[in-house]
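Subject: magnesium chelatase structure
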Amino acid sequence: MAERQVTIDRVHRPLPSTFFVIATQNPIESHGAYPLPEAQLDRFAAKLSIGYPDRESELELLEADSKGQLGTDEVKPVLDPASLCRLQQRVMQTVVGEKVRRYLVDLAQATRTDSEIDVGLSPRGLITWQRVAQSRAFLRGRDFVSPEDVQDVATPVLGVRLLGNFSSSDEIVSRLLEEMPAAVDSIQTINVEIRDAIQSGNIDEAHELLHEMEHLVDELPDVAADTDLTEQDWKEIQKASEQLSEAFGKLDESFHVEDSDPQAVYDGVAESIDSAVEQISQRIPADADVPATGNSSSEHDHGVVAARYACGPSLIYCGIGLAGSILLVAIFPYSSLTDSMAHTDPMAPLQMLLVAIPAYATPLNVMMQVGGMFVHGNSVGAAYVLLALGAGANLGQLAWAYRMYGLKQATAFLAVFVVVVTAIAYSIEDPLYSAGEVDHPHTHAFDVYACPYTGNGSDLASKAWTKIREDARMYEVAGLAGVCFLIAVGAVLRVMDPENQLDSKLASWGERQRSDTESVFHADLPGPVLGAVSLIGLVAMSVAGCYVFYPAPEDTLQDLQIVKADALTYASSGDVENAVKSIERYDDLTRKLQVGYYLRNFELSEFQQARARVLRGRLERLKDLLEAEHDFDEVRDSNWEISESHRRVREAFTPQED
């Protein structure tokens, strides 16, 4: 167990770091099951009560038994020893702050002085408690331990160790946690501690407190958005937060620069800090809960992330999309589409469906092909089908839709889309046709979808290479090389770094760079600026599509209400699969709400963005609870929090009457 070795005939055999012991005991069968010594119990990390399986699990158990699938042959490994060792190392790197360590020690000493406890927590048990709390924080995606992590694992860790005259250790642990709650430091308190640490020359402690303060300040806008304060108050809090961040950036820089005097730097920014702290403390409600969140590598965009995605599902979808164009080349011989899609052919729009859906075409190429169709008496309806489906759909996109929304919903959407496009195509055929009588309607617009080679199919490799050398432009070759390089890097990263350690290191390095240097490239651009730059290039082609895809806020709010009811109902009933799907739709609708509001009002305040962001955070937490199979009380509490955040989002996006 804790000795990490086994001795047989005086021969010591070391055990691997992945070795651990699981012991089971059925409390009903007391005969033959003797209590273990206290010292041996102390070597177990935790005590878990599994209980009976639920109804659905027992039904699955009977079904598996009837099919002979209960044997161990069906068990498959989900992790190799090397990956487990890497995870163990990352857990040990999870930071435990000074205040959390003091909280652990205070709780441990309380177990030793409590009148109902005969045997309290040992130093070995205290170390185990800290490690289990580190694991809990790591599984939640954080790089530091919060008091909540300590509290969440208290019952299983202490339950195997505390001995005394009581029937249930759970009640004792709950009482201890209630009698000794974790101290919640306010911004004012930490500010004073930073000043005292600098004045006493304890720079390491001041640096640690500064990072704690920065985490707190980063969360302030979202915390404020999750309350009922006014938008003006929220803006004042955000302004004060930015003021604090700027002051802390200067102070943090003084810790890294040689010959710098942190005391002098603090004196220079003390007035600014005190003013901002006062502004925040006057507006943040006393009962506002600052969520314990940390910086994970998924929150940072790096080239390595792009490489991982390039070698992930996106590559498969792109391959499926390109396969559609390859399929067309294999079906249609050289120049076979030159005389097709004539205005006089009533089947032209339907024929175009067979080409447009599998075609992998960019909007620019499609527009050029459509323009070429109007010269020699081609079908206007077929041109519209190519524009709508050639650039709007491909096999890769359909594969993605089937995976995201299921066969039924994706097929229904595609069918409706095709029917609407076809109906419009036939309705505009005659009114928009202007080429007059043409003896021989033809076009070369579709030659790109047919086989580019004449003759038989021999020596295709040589013909393909010759065609590429003749037609490929330099920027196309450079772009293809860049994509191939990105895919290769992604493949190497997925094999050599499956735990995303490089991402985390780059994220940490990036944060240090941002704190150590001031550059125009680190500036945060306002949303309207980014929106204007994007809209300039897209407005000519997609204004109508944007207004259809992003409906008016009042329509989206109605959809949100329906999806909210579905998501919370499924969550309350334990239907995890449908609940997760509804939560993902819920999340997507909040983003549509923001874009739809911006398109119609030409502004989107940061206050509205913050409230929508808080709602998405609540949805993510509910999804995590469901996938981790937490108890009903936690799911119920999360449902209530989502309802409150939903109400605030509705108020933020609903016009207020004067």
